[in-house]
Amino acid sequence: MSAPIVAVDGNDDRDFESSELGTKDYWDKVYDRELETFEDIGDVGEIWFGEDSQNRVARWLEKSAISPETSVLDLGCGNGAMLIELRNNGFTNLTGIDYSSGAIQLAKKVAEADGFKDIVFEVGDLTAEDSIGNCPCFSRKYGVCLDKGTYDAISLMPTSCTEARVSYLRIVKTVMVDDGIFILTSCNWTKEQLLEFFGKDFRLEANIPTPSFQFGGKQGNTVTTLVLKKS
Predict the structure, then answer these.
(1) Which of 148, 149, 173, 198 has the most crowded CB, counting CB atoms within 10 A?
(2) Is 139 within the bounds of a domain?
């Protein structure tokens, strides 16, 4: 069993164990394979949490008052599928970052294959203290930040998880405009846990409905998607 992860306030706030999904090496290998597969047969690879989760976020943005020209940053973009979906629906100012160079190579190829060479993809590490000064995309400000599983992966890191989560929060706050929108999807953390960690810097704007289940007379959700506004 791995050592417990200690929360920022000194209490152990994680009720799940670390995993290889929290390591860069794991994701580098995943995206190297998916890049090779895409080049061979055109398969874009897995959409994290599935297309339904992606579409729920896209539909919420479409129905909101957010302008299609608003700058959007996808935090941990993977194969770029989320941004391509938004581009298909009229959003034009799109940037994706990922700490895996293989993911960025794949995202660029998938976007270009769909005819979208205007989506910006850059390598950037949300867990490193010096990322803001070393990654060009972090020098810009965004009206919308999206996270579909990246904070989950950071939370699964076998070591330095607390520091990485704090670095992630600091970077997200820094790159967002005042009153910017942060849409966060998680399968590891509950709504209450997410609000406890992010609540000092963000307020809850909306809770996007996600599939629910019942077990032992109690109802729960497979994933949680929150719309937070920078406060």
Answers:
(1) 148
(2) yes
Q: How many CB atoms lie within 10 A of CB 60?
A: 17
Q: What is the largest CA-CA distance in the chain?
A: 50
3-class SS string, 88-127: HCCCCCEEEEECCHHHHHHHHHHHHHCCCCCCEEEECCCC
With respect to residue 5, please indicate whether it lies within any of the assigned structural domains. no
- Asked if 93 and 66 count as a contact pair (C-beta separation under 8 A), the reply is no
Q: 80: domain CATH number?
A: 3.40.50.150
- Per-residue tokens: 5: 């992860």
The residue segments making up the domain with residue 142 are 20-230
Residue 1, pLDDT above cutoff 60:
no
- Rounded to an integer, what distance in angstroms lies between the CA atom of residue 181 and that of residue 47? 22
Number of folded domains that form the chain? 1
**Closest listed residue to residue 146, CA positions, set 185, 191, 104:** 185
**Residue 2 pLDDT grade (very low, low, confident, very high; cuts 50, 70, 90):** very low
57 φ, ψ (degrees, to nearest 5):
-65, -45
Domain contains 14: no
